[in-house]
Specification:
Pfam families: PRiA4_ORF3. It comes from Paenibacillus konkukensis. This is Plasmid pRiA4b ORF-3-like protein. InterPro entries: MM3350-like_sf, Plasmid_pRiA4b_Orf3-like. By secondary structure, this protein is of the alpha+beta class. An 8-stranded mixed beta sheet has the order 5-4-3-6-7-1-2-8. The longest helix has 22 residues. The protein has 15 helices and 8 strands. It folds into 2 domains: about 150 residues, Structural Genomics Hypothetical 15.5 Kd Protein In mrcA-pckA Intergenic Region, Chain A (Roll); about 130 residues, no CATH class. The model has no long low-confidence stretch (mean pLDDT about 90).
Length: about 375
C-alpha cells in the first residue's frame, strides 16, 4: 500500500501545489527530502512537521535544553505511525526565517502500487518560490516587481533570481527524474537491496601447483619478484629460502631483540606486552619454518619472563600462566626430537629455569617443576 498525498503552500494564490505518492514506512526526514524535490526547494534550511499536537524534526541539542515539551526525531518516526486515515491533515514548515508553511493531506491509500516503494510526483501547478526571498510577502512583492517593466527594483530582482525562473512553470517529468536519481535515499530501508556477499575464494595448494606448472621460467621469475615486492614478510621469507643460514641467523637476532625488548628494553622498564612477544615468535616461525630456532626463541621468552619477575617481584596470574604454557611447549618440542640432540642442548637451561623460580608466588615454581618432570630423559 502507498499513500497519495497533496501538499499546498499556504497563503499564496493561485495555489502552488503537488500531488505525489510515498510509501507509508518512510521516515519524516525522508518525507522532508521528498517534499523538497517535488516542491522545488533547495534544502538549505531547517524544517518541522506539526501533527496531532506533536512536533517532528531533527534533534537540536541547543534547542532541546530550552524546550519544555517533547520533540520527536524525524529520522526515527515513520509516516505510517502518525498518519493513518484518509483525509488526515498536517503541517510542514520549511525555513524558520521565511516561515514557509505547507498543508499536507493524505488524499487516499493506493494498494495497487504496493510493490513499488519509490516516490512519484503525480501532478502539480506553478513553480516554487525562490529561496530566501522573504516569505509570502517577499514572494508576492517579487512577482509584482517582475511583472512591472519600469519598476525601480526590477533590475535588482532579475539579477538575483535563479536563471530561467518562471512562476507558472512546473514539470512532473523533471521532478520524477530527480526522485529517481535519489530513490535509494527516499524509500524505506527494508526495501533496499543489500549487495550479495562475494563468495569466498581461497587458493589451495593443488590449484597453486597446477598453475605454477603451466608457467614458463620467465613467468615464474616475474612471479617470485612480484611476491618479493608485495610485502616485507614475503621478502624475509624469500631471503631465508634463497640466502639460507645467513639470512636465518640475521632474522633470529632481529626477532630475539623484539622478544627481549618487551621485558628488558635498552631504556626504561619493559612494557611486558606478552601478546606482542608471542606474536613475534609466531611470525618468526611462519617466515623461517625453522623449528629449532623457534624453540630457542620460546625458551628465551621464558628465561626473560623469569628474570623479569626475579627483578621486579611477583606479577600476576596471567603472566605466570603465559610463562608456564610456553615452557610446556618447549618441553613438548624437545620430547618430539627423536635424535636426542635437543635434550642435550637445552636440558640444563630448562632445569635452571625451574631452580631459579623457588619462592615465586602463584604456584609458578611447582607448575614448572611438574612440567620439567615430563621431560623424557635420553
Amino acid at each position: 500500500m502507498n499513500y497519495i498525498c497533496k501538499i499546498e503552500l499556504n497563503e499564496i494564490t493561485p495555489k502552488i501545489w503537488r500531488e505525489f505518492r510515498i510509501h507509508p514506512d518512510v521516515t519524516f526526514h525522508q518525507l522532508h527530502k521528498i517534499i523538497q524535490v517535488v516542491m522545488g526547494w533547495e534544502n538549505c534550511h531547517l524544517y518541522e512537521f506539526r501533527l496531532n499536537g506533536q512536533e517532528i524534526r531533527l534533534p537540536d541539542p541547543e534547542l532541546a535544553a530550552r524546550e519544555d515539551h517533547e520533540v520527536l526525531n524525524a529520522r526515527r518516526e515513520t509516516v505510517q505511525k502518525h498518519v493513518h486515515e484518509e483525509g488526515s491533515v498536517f503541517t510542514y514548515v520549511y525555513d524558520f526565517g521565511d516561515d514557509w508553511q505547507h498543508t499536507v493531506t493524505l488524499v487516499r491509500t493506493d494498494p495497487s502500487t504496493a510493490s513499488d516503494p519509490a516516490p512519484l510526483c503525480l501532478d502539480g501547478a506553478r513553480s516554487c518560490p525562490q529561496e530566501d526571498v522573504g516569505g509570502v510577502w517577499g514572494h508576492q512583492h517579487m512577482l509584482e516587481v517582475l511583472s512591472t517593466p519600469d519598476h525601480p527594483e526590477r533590475e535588482q530582482f532579475t539579477g538575483w533570481i535563479r536563471e530561467g525562473y518562471d512562476p507558472e512553470y512546473f514539470s512532473c517529468n523533471e521532478v520524477n527524474a530527480e526522485l529517481q536519481n535519489r530513490k535509494d535515499k527516499l524509500i524505506p530501508k527494508s526495501f533496499l537491496q543489500r549487495p550479495a556477499s562475494p563468495k569466498s575464494v581461497k587458493l589451495t595448494k593443488p590449484a597453486l601447483n597446477k598453475h605454477l606448472k603451466q608457467l614458463s621460467n620467465d613467468q615464474l621469475i616475474e612471479l617470485v619478484k612480484a611476491c618479493y615486492g608485495a610485502s616485507k614478510d614475503m621478502g624475509k621469507f624469500l631471503a631465508v629460502k634463497i640466502l639460507g643460514d645467513e639470512a636465518l641467523e640475521s632474522m633470529f637476532h632481529e626477532y630475539r631483540k623484539k622478544v627481549e625488548q618487551e621485558f628488558f628494553p635498552e631504556r626504561g622498564i619493559g612494557k611486558l606486552r606478552l601478546q606482542e612477544a608471542r606474536a613475534a615468535i609466531s611470525e618468526f616461525e611462519r617466515l623461517t619454518e625453522s623449528v629449532e630456532r623457534t624453540l630457542e626463541l620460546k625458551l628465551i621468552y621464558v628465561e626473560m619472563g623469569v628474570s623479569y619477575t626475579l627483578t621486579y617481584g611477583d606479577i600476576d596470574v596471567r603472566f605466570y600462566y603465559s610463562m608456564a604454557s610456553m615452557y610446556a611447549n618447549v618441553i613438548s618440542m624437545v620430547n618430539d626430537d627423536e635424535t636426542g640432540e635437543w635434550f642435550d642442548a637445552y636440558e640444563e637451561r630448562l632445569e635452571a629455569i625451574v631452580l631459579s623460580t623457588r619462592g615465586i608466588g602463584w604456584g609458578f615454581h611447582d607448575n614448572l617443576a611438574d612440567l620439567h618432570a615430563q621431560l623424557q630423559w635420553v
